[in-house]
DNA sequence: GGGCTTAATTTACAATGTGTAGTATACTAA
DNA sequence: TTAGTATACTACACATTGTAAATTAAGCCC
């Protein structure tokens, strides 16, 4: 198979980058529903037919872009800690890496996360993050305080995942008024409510 | 002006109800992007041109349906408590009313909240809920424990609003496996982390 | 450099969807 | 009953979609 060659062909990379840039640009000018293949390829300065050589339609393009995004986030977050004795500082550092990655690619993330009516990227991050939380909690003894308090673990994970992703969304919408480090520590404070429970 | 008459004309109500029903029905069969005015009016058994007498386009229809939704939620939640001495049980009851309203209109809410790629309704609820939280917190002394712990109030509100709406979304996606009363109490437990702080 | 492979372009076409006319009909409310 | 209005119907110009075929251009490997 020549899949590896196909994936590294600079012409393909160029076309997809042009599409991605045009996508981010156009979404700052119009809503997703106004984004047509016509407009997109015109802004990307490629032929309309070329678009269909890469994606089935705009939804398909969103899906594949979201796939790429998740891959990057995954490599930034790394494997969930399997340490039996979680280090709070390490938690904060992981979160900080995540926020810094978003901050560095702020233009893209603000567009796909905080621009309204493009739920796919947020969905994907939320799902990924939920799984990540489940793995982390299960590999630790963290279930203890949750269960001790009579909290259903499933609900707690829904709650926490939505809270963190949603806060990041608000943070982006407000043009990141706090540093990633500060926000990460705020997450920790909110999570523990100021008590140093574990 | 005859606006009031227009709004009560049974023909108008009938057409809009047909459109709303067709909307909910079709979204269970296809994604929003596949929903056209053609398909919608066909399913609603009204003429396509009639659609444009009510809405500019599908986005406009979503906006107006979301307006109606917020009006209903607003009347269910009622005014934020201005009581200086918040009653935890009252908090839980308000939340329970909210969840029961959603549960009673489960078909609609599951479609517009938990069906993917229709962010407008969730956005509106989140914004409304955020404002509601701000009003509630400001009218109480609730800022105290947040500030005492060094938590930025703005961030805490982002966090809590996203958490609650997101949890409701997950709850709907999983076909409401808990009763509204149980879930409301879970929110309380998570919020206080089992400690009875106030 | 030259041959091979593949991406991109160009042009064309049918099908569907959009938004807006004008007119006719049916319903509502006073 | 009558005036007002919501809906139906038909028609039209235009935009968008998805695909096909042939051609051009770029990149890869020896």
Q: What class, by secondary structure content of chain A?
A: mainly alpha
Number of helices of chain A: 11
* Succession of helices and strands of chain A: HHHHHHHHHHH
Give the radius of gyration of chain A: 20 Å
Helix content of chain A: over 70%
- The total count of strands of chain A amounts to 0
Largest sheet of chain A: none
Low-confidence stretches of chain A: 1-6
Please state the oligomeric state of the protein chains shown: homodimer
Strand content of chain A: under 5%
Features:
disordered N terminus, 198 residues, mainly alpha, 11 helices, homodimer, 73% helix, DNA-binding
Structure notes:
The structure is a homodimer of 198-residue chains. By secondary structure, chain A is an all-alpha fold. Chain A contains eleven helices and no strands. Chain A has helices at 3-8, 10-27, 37-43, 48-54, 58-77, 88-104, 106-114, 119-138, 143-148, 153-173, 180-192. The longest helix of chain A has 21 residues, at 153-173. The A-B interface holds A 31, 33, 58-59, 116-120, 122-123, 126, 145, 148-152, 155-156, 158-167, 169-171, 178, 183, 186-187, 189-190, 192-195, 197 and B 31, 33, 58-59, 116-120, 122-123, 126, 145, 148-152, 155-156, 158-167, 169-171, 178, 183, 186-187, 189-190, 192-195, 197. The first copy, chain A, binds a DNA duplex (30 and 30 nucleotides) through residues 2, 5-6, 9-12, 15, 36-38, 46-50, 52-53, 56-57.
């Amino acid at each position: 198979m020549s899949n590896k060659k196909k994936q590294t062909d600079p012409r393909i990379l160029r076309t997809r980058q042009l599409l991605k840039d045009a996508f981010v640009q156009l979404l700052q000018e119009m809503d997703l529903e106004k984004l047509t293949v016509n407009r997109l390829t015109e802004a990307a300065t490629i032929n309309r037919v070329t678009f269909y050589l890469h994606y089935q339609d705009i939804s398909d393009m969103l899906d594949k872009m979201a796939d790429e995004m998740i891959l990057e986030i995954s490599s930034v977050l790394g494997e969930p800690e399997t340490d039996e004795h979680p280090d709070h500082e390490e938690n904060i550092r992981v979160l900080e890496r995540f926020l810094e990655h978003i901050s560095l690619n702020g233009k893209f993330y603000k567009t796909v996360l905080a621009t309204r009516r493009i739920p796919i990227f947020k969905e994907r991050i939320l799902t990924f993050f939920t799984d990540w939380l489940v793995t982390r909690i299960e590999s630790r003894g963290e279930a203890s305080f949750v269960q001790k308090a009579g909290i259903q673990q499933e609900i707690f994970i829904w709650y926490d995942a939505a809270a963190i992703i949603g806060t990041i969304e608000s943070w982006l919408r407000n043009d990141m008024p706090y540093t990633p480090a500060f926000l990460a520590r705020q997450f920790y404070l909110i999570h523990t409510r100021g008590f140093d429970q574990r």
